[in-house]
Design brief:
The structure holds two protein chains of two kinds. Chain A is of the alpha+beta class. In chain A, the strands form four sheets. Chain A has a three-stranded antiparallel sheet with strand order 2-8-5. A three-stranded antiparallel sheet of chain A has the order 4-3-9. A two-stranded antiparallel ribbon of chain A has the order 1-10. In chain A, a hairpin with a 2-residue loop joins strand 3 and strand 4. In chain A, helix 1 packs across helix 4. Chain A is elongated. By secondary structure, chain B is an alpha+beta fold. Chain B is built from five helices and five strands; from the N terminus they run βααααβββαβ. A five-stranded mixed sheet of chain B has the order 2-3-4-1-5, sandwiched between helices. In chain B, strand 3 and strand 4 form a beta hairpin. Chain B is globular and about 40 Å long. Chain B starts with a strand and ends in a 7-residue tail after the last strand. Classes of the chains: A alpha+beta, B alpha+beta. At the A-B interface, helix 8, helix 9 and strand 11 of A face helix 1, helix 4, strand 3, strand 4 and helix 5 of B. Strand 11 of chain A pairs parallel with strand 5 of chain B.
Amino acid sequence: MCTLSRDTFKRLVVLGTIAKFRDGVYGAKRLQKVVYLGTRTEANKPFPYIKHHYGQYSEELEDTKDQLLSMGLICAEPTKTKRGIRFGGTFYPSESGNIYRLSHPLEPIRDLFTRANPDLSRALGQAVELYGYLPEAKLIEIVYSLPEFQAKAANELIFSADLPDQVAVQLDEEECDELELSLNPKFLYGASLILTGLEKTDLDFTTLKTVTRAN
Amino acid sequence: MHLVAHDIFMEQYRLVTEKYPLIKTSLDKQLEKAAADPFNAGEQLRLISDPNLKQKLLKVWVRGEHLPKKKGHRLLYLVVKEKTIVLPFFISPEPREDFDYAEYDWEASAKQIYADVMEWKREKLRIFEPWRDAG
Protein backbone atom coordinates (compact mmCIF):
# COMPACT_ATOMS: atom_id res chain seq x y z
CA MET A 1 0.00 0.00 0.00
CA CYS A 2 1.36 3.44 -0.95
CA THR A 3 0.09 6.77 -2.23
CA LEU A 4 0.10 8.53 -5.58
CA SER A 5 -0.13 12.26 -6.08
CA ARG A 6 -3.54 13.37 -7.33
CA ASP A 7 -2.18 14.28 -10.78
CA THR A 8 -0.43 10.94 -11.21
CA PHE A 9 -3.57 9.11 -10.13
CA LYS A 10 -5.67 11.05 -12.65
CA ARG A 11 -3.25 10.14 -15.43
CA LEU A 12 -3.42 6.50 -14.37
CA VAL A 13 -7.24 6.63 -14.46
CA VAL A 14 -7.24 7.92 -18.04
CA LEU A 15 -4.58 5.42 -19.15
CA GLY A 16 -6.39 2.61 -17.35
CA THR A 17 -9.71 3.53 -18.94
CA ILE A 18 -8.26 3.66 -22.45
CA ALA A 19 -6.57 0.30 -21.76
CA LYS A 20 -9.98 -1.23 -21.04
CA PHE A 21 -11.11 -0.59 -24.61
CA ARG A 22 -10.30 -3.51 -26.85
CA ASP A 23 -9.05 -1.35 -29.71
CA GLY A 24 -8.71 2.21 -28.49
CA VAL A 25 -11.32 4.88 -27.81
CA TYR A 26 -13.16 6.22 -30.81
CA GLY A 27 -13.26 9.94 -30.09
CA ALA A 28 -12.50 12.24 -27.18
CA LYS A 29 -16.22 12.74 -26.63
CA ARG A 30 -16.65 9.00 -26.06
CA LEU A 31 -13.82 9.01 -23.51
CA GLN A 32 -15.44 11.95 -21.72
CA LYS A 33 -18.83 10.23 -21.53
CA VAL A 34 -17.52 6.81 -20.50
CA VAL A 35 -15.40 8.25 -17.68
CA TYR A 36 -18.42 10.28 -16.60
CA LEU A 37 -20.67 7.21 -16.56
CA GLY A 38 -18.05 5.16 -14.75
CA THR A 39 -17.37 7.70 -12.01
CA ARG A 40 -20.69 9.50 -11.44
CA THR A 41 -21.69 7.25 -8.55
CA GLU A 42 -18.21 6.58 -7.19
CA ALA A 43 -17.11 7.87 -3.79
CA ASN A 44 -13.88 9.43 -5.09
CA LYS A 45 -14.42 11.21 -8.37
CA PRO A 46 -11.17 11.94 -10.21
CA PHE A 47 -12.58 14.60 -12.55
CA PRO A 48 -15.12 17.43 -12.18
CA TYR A 49 -17.82 17.67 -14.84
CA ILE A 50 -19.90 20.55 -16.12
CA LYS A 51 -22.98 20.62 -18.33
CA HIS A 52 -21.48 21.49 -21.68
CA HIS A 53 -23.11 22.10 -25.03
CA TYR A 54 -22.12 18.54 -26.02
CA GLY A 55 -23.15 16.99 -22.73
CA GLN A 56 -21.11 16.17 -19.66
CA TYR A 57 -17.62 17.58 -20.07
CA SER A 58 -14.47 17.71 -17.94
CA GLU A 59 -11.75 20.15 -18.88
CA GLU A 60 -9.40 18.43 -16.40
CA LEU A 61 -9.92 15.13 -18.17
CA GLU A 62 -9.22 16.81 -21.50
CA ASP A 63 -6.03 18.35 -20.08
CA THR A 64 -4.93 15.02 -18.65
CA LYS A 65 -5.51 13.29 -21.98
CA ASP A 66 -3.45 16.01 -23.71
CA GLN A 67 -0.60 15.56 -21.21
CA LEU A 68 -0.57 11.82 -21.90
CA LEU A 69 -0.45 12.57 -25.63
CA SER A 70 2.48 14.95 -25.17
CA MET A 71 4.34 12.38 -23.07
CA GLY A 72 3.85 9.81 -25.83
CA LEU A 73 1.95 7.48 -23.51
CA ILE A 74 -1.09 7.57 -25.75
CA CYS A 75 -1.36 8.29 -29.44
CA ALA A 76 -4.16 9.77 -31.50
CA GLU A 77 -4.80 8.33 -34.92
CA PRO A 78 -7.31 9.83 -37.33
CA THR A 79 -10.23 7.55 -38.08
CA LYS A 80 -10.64 6.54 -41.71
CA THR A 81 -13.72 8.67 -41.94
CA LYS A 82 -14.72 11.54 -39.73
CA ARG A 83 -18.31 10.54 -40.17
CA GLY A 84 -18.23 7.23 -38.39
CA ILE A 85 -16.43 4.20 -37.06
CA ARG A 86 -16.41 0.54 -37.93
CA PHE A 87 -16.29 -1.89 -35.05
CA GLY A 88 -16.80 -5.65 -35.25
CA GLY A 89 -18.06 -5.40 -38.79
CA THR A 90 -20.69 -2.79 -37.92
CA PHE A 91 -20.54 0.85 -38.94
CA TYR A 92 -21.34 3.40 -36.23
CA PRO A 93 -21.89 7.05 -37.03
CA SER A 94 -19.45 9.30 -35.19
CA GLU A 95 -18.49 12.94 -35.35
CA SER A 96 -15.14 12.57 -33.63
CA GLY A 97 -12.01 12.21 -35.69
CA ASN A 98 -9.43 10.40 -33.55
CA ILE A 99 -8.86 6.98 -32.09
CA TYR A 100 -6.94 7.15 -28.81
CA ARG A 101 -4.72 4.19 -28.06
CA LEU A 102 -2.01 3.41 -25.54
CA SER A 103 1.53 3.51 -26.91
CA HIS A 104 2.40 0.62 -24.57
CA PRO A 105 1.05 -2.89 -24.39
CA LEU A 106 -2.31 -2.76 -22.64
CA GLU A 107 -1.82 -5.47 -20.04
CA PRO A 108 0.68 -3.81 -17.64
CA ILE A 109 -1.45 -0.65 -17.46
CA ARG A 110 -4.66 -2.64 -17.01
CA ASP A 111 -3.00 -4.61 -14.23
CA LEU A 112 -1.60 -1.54 -12.44
CA PHE A 113 -4.92 0.30 -12.62
CA THR A 114 -6.92 -2.73 -11.50
CA ARG A 115 -4.72 -3.26 -8.47
CA ALA A 116 -4.33 0.45 -7.67
CA ASN A 117 -8.04 1.00 -7.15
CA PRO A 118 -10.14 -2.13 -7.77
CA ASP A 119 -13.51 -0.40 -7.24
CA LEU A 120 -12.89 2.46 -9.63
CA SER A 121 -11.28 0.12 -12.15
CA ARG A 122 -14.31 -2.17 -12.01
CA ALA A 123 -16.75 0.75 -12.38
CA LEU A 124 -14.89 2.10 -15.40
CA GLY A 125 -14.56 -1.38 -16.88
CA GLN A 126 -18.33 -1.81 -16.67
CA ALA A 127 -18.88 1.61 -18.23
CA VAL A 128 -16.59 0.69 -21.12
CA GLU A 129 -18.45 -2.59 -21.72
CA LEU A 130 -21.93 -1.06 -21.37
CA TYR A 131 -21.42 2.24 -23.17
CA GLY A 132 -17.98 2.29 -24.79
CA TYR A 133 -18.99 0.72 -28.08
CA LEU A 134 -22.43 2.26 -28.53
CA PRO A 135 -23.14 4.41 -31.57
CA GLU A 136 -22.31 7.95 -30.60
CA ALA A 137 -25.89 9.17 -31.01
CA LYS A 138 -27.11 6.46 -28.63
CA LEU A 139 -24.39 7.29 -26.10
CA ILE A 140 -25.33 10.98 -26.21
CA GLU A 141 -28.99 10.12 -25.78
CA ILE A 142 -28.18 8.13 -22.64
CA VAL A 143 -26.03 10.80 -20.99
CA TYR A 144 -28.50 13.57 -21.86
CA SER A 145 -31.31 11.63 -20.22
CA LEU A 146 -29.61 11.40 -16.83
CA PRO A 147 -31.52 13.34 -14.14
CA GLU A 148 -28.48 15.21 -12.81
CA PHE A 149 -27.80 16.48 -16.34
CA GLN A 150 -31.41 17.51 -16.93
CA ALA A 151 -31.43 19.43 -13.65
CA LYS A 152 -28.46 21.66 -14.52
CA ALA A 153 -28.20 24.83 -16.54
CA ALA A 154 -25.58 25.27 -19.28
CA ASN A 155 -22.00 25.43 -17.94
CA GLU A 156 -23.18 24.56 -14.44
CA LEU A 157 -21.10 22.13 -12.37
CA ILE A 158 -22.62 18.66 -12.28
CA PHE A 159 -20.16 17.32 -9.72
CA SER A 160 -16.71 18.28 -8.52
CA ALA A 161 -13.64 16.10 -8.15
CA ASP A 162 -12.92 14.99 -4.63
CA LEU A 163 -9.58 13.26 -4.62
CA PRO A 164 -7.19 14.03 -1.76
CA ASP A 165 -3.72 15.43 -2.56
CA GLN A 166 -2.31 11.96 -2.01
CA VAL A 167 -4.44 9.03 -3.12
CA ALA A 168 -3.97 5.70 -1.34
CA VAL A 169 -3.53 2.85 -3.82
CA GLN A 170 -2.96 -0.86 -3.45
CA LEU A 171 0.44 -0.91 -5.14
CA ASP A 172 3.90 -1.37 -3.68
CA GLU A 173 6.50 1.36 -3.23
CA GLU A 174 8.38 0.41 -6.40
CA GLU A 175 5.24 0.59 -8.54
CA CYS A 176 4.18 3.93 -7.08
CA ASP A 177 7.65 5.33 -7.63
CA GLU A 178 7.64 4.12 -11.24
CA LEU A 179 4.28 5.79 -11.88
CA GLU A 180 5.26 9.05 -10.17
CA LEU A 181 8.23 9.38 -12.50
CA SER A 182 6.93 7.86 -15.73
CA LEU A 183 3.64 9.79 -15.64
CA ASN A 184 5.22 13.12 -14.68
CA PRO A 185 5.56 15.39 -17.74
CA LYS A 186 7.91 17.81 -15.98
CA PHE A 187 10.26 15.01 -14.99
CA LEU A 188 10.25 13.52 -18.49
CA TYR A 189 10.87 16.91 -20.05
CA GLY A 190 13.77 17.55 -17.66
CA ALA A 191 15.41 14.16 -18.13
CA SER A 192 15.06 14.44 -21.93
CA LEU A 193 16.56 17.91 -21.92
CA ILE A 194 19.61 16.85 -19.91
CA LEU A 195 20.11 13.82 -22.16
CA THR A 196 19.86 16.02 -25.26
CA GLY A 197 22.53 18.32 -23.83
CA LEU A 198 24.86 15.43 -23.00
CA GLU A 199 24.44 13.96 -26.47
CA LYS A 200 24.75 17.23 -28.39
CA THR A 201 27.55 19.02 -26.60
CA ASP A 202 31.10 18.99 -27.91
CA LEU A 203 32.47 19.27 -24.39
CA ASP A 204 35.09 16.60 -23.72
CA PHE A 205 34.00 15.29 -20.33
CA THR A 206 37.12 13.21 -19.89
CA THR A 207 39.17 16.38 -19.45
CA LEU A 208 37.19 17.60 -16.44
CA LYS A 209 38.95 17.74 -13.11
CA THR A 210 38.42 14.79 -10.78
CA VAL A 211 37.23 15.23 -7.20
CA THR A 212 36.44 12.77 -4.44
CA ARG A 213 34.55 15.08 -2.12
CA ALA A 214 31.45 17.24 -2.50
CA ASN A 215 32.94 20.19 -0.60
CA MET B 1 32.78 5.18 -17.60
CA HIS B 2 33.30 8.59 -16.00
CA LEU B 3 30.83 9.65 -13.36
CA VAL B 4 30.25 13.33 -14.16
CA ALA B 5 28.45 15.46 -11.59
CA HIS B 6 26.98 18.92 -12.03
CA ASP B 7 26.90 21.47 -9.18
CA ILE B 8 23.22 20.71 -8.64
CA PHE B 9 23.89 17.05 -7.91
CA MET B 10 26.95 17.91 -5.80
CA GLU B 11 24.75 20.10 -3.62
CA GLN B 12 22.14 17.36 -3.32
CA TYR B 13 24.87 14.87 -2.42
CA ARG B 14 26.31 17.23 0.21
CA LEU B 15 22.93 17.91 1.81
CA VAL B 16 21.75 14.32 1.92
CA THR B 17 25.02 12.98 3.33
CA GLU B 18 25.12 15.75 5.93
CA LYS B 19 21.57 15.05 7.06
CA TYR B 20 21.91 11.27 6.81
CA PRO B 21 25.62 10.44 7.33
CA LEU B 22 24.83 6.74 7.38
CA ILE B 23 23.75 6.85 3.76
CA LYS B 24 27.19 7.87 2.49
CA THR B 25 28.73 4.41 2.24
CA SER B 26 25.72 3.05 0.41
CA LEU B 27 25.37 6.06 -1.89
CA ASP B 28 29.07 6.02 -2.78
CA LYS B 29 28.84 2.30 -3.49
CA GLN B 30 25.87 2.84 -5.83
CA LEU B 31 27.69 5.64 -7.63
CA GLU B 32 30.75 3.45 -8.03
CA LYS B 33 28.59 0.64 -9.44
CA ALA B 34 26.85 3.10 -11.78
CA ALA B 35 30.22 4.25 -13.11
CA ALA B 36 31.56 0.72 -13.49
CA ASP B 37 28.53 -1.02 -14.96
CA PRO B 38 25.73 1.52 -15.44
CA PHE B 39 23.20 -0.62 -17.27
CA ASN B 40 23.34 -3.38 -14.67
CA ALA B 41 23.64 -1.12 -11.64
CA GLY B 42 20.24 0.50 -12.23
CA GLU B 43 16.84 -0.27 -13.67
CA GLN B 44 14.97 1.32 -16.52
CA LEU B 45 11.60 2.99 -16.05
CA ARG B 46 9.32 0.52 -17.82
CA LEU B 47 6.54 2.92 -18.75
CA ILE B 48 8.58 5.59 -20.52
CA SER B 49 7.59 5.73 -24.17
CA ASP B 50 10.67 7.47 -25.66
CA PRO B 51 12.97 4.52 -26.48
CA ASN B 52 16.16 6.61 -26.33
CA LEU B 53 15.36 8.02 -22.89
CA LYS B 54 14.09 4.68 -21.66
CA GLN B 55 17.39 3.03 -22.52
CA LYS B 56 19.61 5.72 -21.01
CA LEU B 57 17.72 6.76 -17.88
CA LEU B 58 18.24 4.50 -14.90
CA LYS B 59 17.04 4.43 -11.31
CA VAL B 60 18.41 2.78 -8.23
CA TRP B 61 17.48 2.60 -4.55
CA VAL B 62 20.01 3.76 -2.02
CA ARG B 63 19.28 1.92 1.21
CA GLY B 64 21.18 3.48 4.06
CA GLU B 65 21.87 1.84 7.39
CA HIS B 66 19.58 4.39 9.05
CA LEU B 67 16.60 3.12 7.10
CA PRO B 68 14.30 0.21 7.75
CA LYS B 69 14.13 -2.53 5.14
CA LYS B 70 12.27 -1.55 1.97
CA LYS B 71 12.87 2.18 2.50
CA GLY B 72 15.35 4.11 0.44
CA HIS B 73 16.45 7.27 -1.29
CA ARG B 74 15.93 7.42 -5.04
CA LEU B 75 19.02 7.97 -7.20
CA LEU B 76 18.55 8.75 -10.91
CA TYR B 77 21.23 8.89 -13.57
CA LEU B 78 21.71 9.12 -17.32
CA VAL B 79 24.20 7.13 -19.37
CA VAL B 80 25.74 8.25 -22.65
CA LYS B 81 27.88 5.31 -23.69
CA GLU B 82 29.43 7.02 -26.74
CA LYS B 83 30.91 9.69 -24.46
CA THR B 84 31.71 7.23 -21.67
CA ILE B 85 29.77 9.24 -19.12
CA VAL B 86 27.29 8.56 -16.39
CA LEU B 87 25.57 11.64 -15.02
CA PRO B 88 23.68 11.33 -11.73
CA PHE B 89 21.15 14.15 -11.64
CA PHE B 90 18.96 13.44 -8.64
CA ILE B 91 19.14 11.89 -5.19
CA SER B 92 16.01 12.33 -3.10
CA PRO B 93 16.79 14.50 -0.06
CA GLU B 94 14.60 12.31 2.12
CA PRO B 95 13.69 8.64 2.00
CA ARG B 96 11.34 8.28 -0.94
CA GLU B 97 8.27 7.62 1.21
CA ASP B 98 8.74 11.00 2.89
CA PHE B 99 9.42 12.93 -0.29
CA ASP B 100 7.05 14.10 -3.00
CA TYR B 101 8.58 14.47 -6.48
CA ALA B 102 6.25 17.42 -7.04
CA GLU B 103 8.41 19.37 -4.56
CA TYR B 104 11.36 19.27 -6.93
CA ASP B 105 11.68 21.68 -9.85
CA TRP B 106 12.70 19.24 -12.59
CA GLU B 107 12.46 21.82 -15.35
CA ALA B 108 14.61 24.48 -13.71
CA SER B 109 17.39 22.09 -12.74
CA ALA B 110 17.36 20.43 -16.18
CA LYS B 111 17.54 23.77 -17.96
CA GLN B 112 20.51 24.76 -15.82
CA ILE B 113 22.38 21.52 -16.50
CA TYR B 114 21.56 21.71 -20.22
CA ALA B 115 22.78 25.30 -20.47
CA ASP B 116 25.99 24.60 -18.56
CA VAL B 117 26.80 21.54 -20.65
CA MET B 118 26.10 23.29 -23.92
CA GLU B 119 28.11 26.37 -22.90
CA TRP B 120 31.04 24.25 -21.71
CA LYS B 121 30.94 25.64 -18.20
CA ARG B 122 33.65 23.32 -16.97
CA GLU B 123 33.64 24.86 -13.50
CA LYS B 124 30.08 23.57 -12.98
CA LEU B 125 31.05 19.99 -13.80
CA ARG B 126 33.59 17.49 -12.54
CA ILE B 127 34.40 13.80 -12.57
CA PHE B 128 33.17 12.68 -9.16
CA GLU B 129 34.67 9.64 -7.44
CA PRO B 130 33.61 9.77 -3.79
CA TRP B 131 34.37 6.06 -3.32
CA ARG B 132 38.06 6.91 -3.67
CA ASP B 133 37.92 9.39 -0.80
CA ALA B 134 40.40 8.20 1.79
CA GLY B 135 38.79 10.42 4.43
